[in-house]
Amino acid sequence: MQRYVPFGYQIQNGKAKIEPETAEFVREIFIIYLAGTSTYRIAKNFTQRGILNASHKPSWNHGSIGKILENQKYLGDEFYPPLIEQSIFEQVQSRRKQRVKDLGRAAQLNSFAENAGSLIANTQRKENPRSGGANITSIVTVYTAVTDF
Prior knowledge:
- This protein is of the alpha+beta class and 149 residues long.
- It has 5 helices and 4 strands, in the order ββαααααββ.
- The chain has helices spanning 20-34, 39-49, 62-70, 86-102, 111-115, and strands spanning 9-12, 15-18, 119-127, 137-145.
- The longest helix has 17 residues, at 86-102.
């Protein structure tokens, strides 16, 4: 079951229908993003214009614009009619990937993740000397780098 209705659609008689006014804003988001406007600028512009978001508030942020740009439901599926042409959607996804690359925001593995495949876990039980005689132990897992392959 759908948890929310994407911006630009409404449900009538159990079926998703394009809501003309908000659908135009969705199309505008795609077109001006393709023209080079950032998600931040689009959000700022929509907020300044008083355009209501999916929560019916005139407050937008770059994250909500990004979610709209990534939502494949706008291509249409068994429930939602198409709102955005496939070619436009693909161009937007290509631009978004390029922006991530240009800004250096690609996923960066930290040193632990890079070496996770070459670690051995050694789990040990240790008595807590401050337990006052009570039989309290702690479990300590020590990761040791494996350098011999």
